[in-house]
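[job 4417] fold queue: 2 targets
>>> target A
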Amino acid sequence: MRFKFCPDCGAALSSRILGDEGEVPWCDTCGKPWFDMFPVAVIALVYNEKGEVLLLRQDYISKDFHNLVSGYVVPGEDAESCAIREIYEETGQKVEELELLLTNWFARKEMMMIGFFARVDSRELKLSVEVDAAAWHKPEEILSLVSTRPGSTSRLLCERYLDRIAKNRV
């Protein structure tokens, strides 16, 4: 979102050169910049003690592909806490180990995705209303089930997971 008016005082914003940032929206009344804002979401490849990967079916996201657990970071929450919360809320799984793996700009939705690997000791799945179905899949199946779109964060995480398995580091 690009601000046209100051969120604090409501004045129309002008532009100002601000160091290395270049030209940015500026409130002359408040004397401060207003940088563009965008949503931030986490996405996690959840795997269990057998190395299986948990894939979700969420028709509101895609009717064609399976998804990884994902969700928006809320104000006051760090990305790690968000990932742990989303995994539990969507699947009922408790994270034993969490590893930050990548960040990826999701251009189609203009959002920043923060990607994790999350190891769980698999328990009974307890799906949220956002999840139509979920199942554990063998690693060799996952690339055929997730998005084939270039730059897809789900696909990037799956490819990195398979690379780790090939190097015996999972």
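>>> target B
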Amino acid sequence: MKKKAEDYEKFRVLLVELKRRLKGDVSMMSAEALGGSDSDSQDNRAPIHPAEIGTHSFEQEFTLNRLSDDGERLEQIEAALDRIEQGVYGSCEECGGRIPKARLEVLPDTPYCVKCASNLGG
């Protein structure tokens, strides 16, 4: 049974806000990972002392991994917004069962019910 987008308006608003926040985080982390353009910031420059190179590399790698994770989360949010528009939001993509609203309140972008998420390892 298809649901109307209005039935899940609260989740649409939550997803849009989460998307906005993540996009801001991605923009900020991208600037940091790429060295930034702020000439006043010492943190964005490559290290001069050899002992700092390992720390700098670790921080860059950590930031790039976070960017990758956030990019995947943004894709999941977009997919959830599409499901709302299509009227299938709240239905598990694996088994077709209903995803409880309590789960959606915690993970509004989840495409799976708890049982299927556990079976899929997520």
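[job 4417] complete. Note on B: Residues 32 and 40 are 13 Å apart (CA to CA).
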